[in-house]
Amino acid sequence: MTLALVPGSFDPVTNGHLDIIQRAVELFDEVRVVVARNSSKTPLFTVEERLEMLREVCAPLARVSVDSFEGLLVNYALECGATVIVKGLRFVSDFEYELQMALMNRRLNSAIETVFLPTSAPYSDLSSSIVKEIARLGGSVEGLVPEIVQQRLREKYTIQST
Q1: Which of 90, 106, 136, 156 is flagged as catalytic?
Q2: What pLDDT digit, counting tens, does each position of 3-42 carry?
Q3: One of 39, 40, 41, 107 is an active-site residue; which one?
């Protein structure tokens, strides 16, 4: 049985992320979506909020679990028995960065393979950063993120503006 990890910050989860997760489910026996705990970043949503949103949007997907990790992804993979890391790619710049990470992960643990999935066309220009900026400025993020994320973004930016 192959366990694949789909790592990211998911701040917040977008429809592009969900596309990659759904496609990973078609390729692997089990998929675990993992939120990176990165203390050097200042996210909009806490790790717990991101986990909650991911659990809700991934609930309909069979064989998908959600977790978080801190430290090296390859160490987490070793601990949970994962042998594959799935990364979505939008642009050439994504590939350059993700290839560097994949090569380093392979150097750290040669049992871990990285699989790159190109994003589906409707999501090629979509990022969590863009979604947050649109929401912060009062624009509609409908069709870019799941409904629960739309609600959470409205709540966050309403609280911040008061």
Answers
A1: 90
A2: 999 999 999 999 999 999 999 999 999 999 999 997 677 8
A3: 41
